[in-house]
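BACKBONE GEOMETRY TOKENS:
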Amino acid sequence: MKIGYLGPEGTFSQMAALKYAKYKGECELVPFSGIPVVLKAVEDGLIDECVVPFENSIEGTVNFTIDSLVFDVDLEMKSEIVLPISHNIAARRDCENIEPVKILSHPQSLAQCRKFLERNYKNADTVQVSSNSEAARIVSQSIEPWFCVTTEAAAEIYGLTILKKGIQDEKHNETRFVAVGKGEGIIDGIKEKTSIVFSTENKPGELYKILDIMSIWDLNMTKIESRPMKNQLGTYVFFVDLECHSAEDMKDALKMIKRKTTFFKHLGTYDLID
């Protein structure tokens, strides 16, 4: 089995993919340059599944992932992997005692360390790149006084010195990753979570009708978030995570929800990998 992830080597996505690969058995891990690219690779059959970041406890949902799953590809979540996240500031050895001009990292990583960076490097420009491992690669090959926010693994791979560990603004920092593959939308037995996305008519009480169905079938809604429908200003889809102790109740509830919505997509019913 081939499993893709947001590369290059040394990213948190690779760590999550390694954890997922242990669960699946013998796998080949393949790095990709971006979230939409790796998801499209699954849909096109170039790889079997992929692991992508979905939500962070500090910065919330990764919009690239949710928007791609809702609008761009026909794939399903297969499993959820949660990793503790610790960020580090790193530089080339010859730049350890120099004030940086730029600090590079993935936009989520920069956002999770915003207070630390503003407090310690207020004169440096932050630069967004495709991953925190790519940031380490760029810094290692540059002759400029650039730093990066990256993982310990990426710093070691690219020969950088870690100047300070654990620089994230909140120490309890976790990221939820999802393994994604092709599926048929079947709910087979009790799983930890079901994710759906839907839209309703623009009338008073339409969302309440959906929430009422969830209440009647005793579904526990653990997350709800709206995203722009992208075809007209003021139109939205709702992303919802649900838990239920009965597979049959979940099936029945989703049938009712589908009837009451103008757009509906089952994004997966899956387990959490410890």
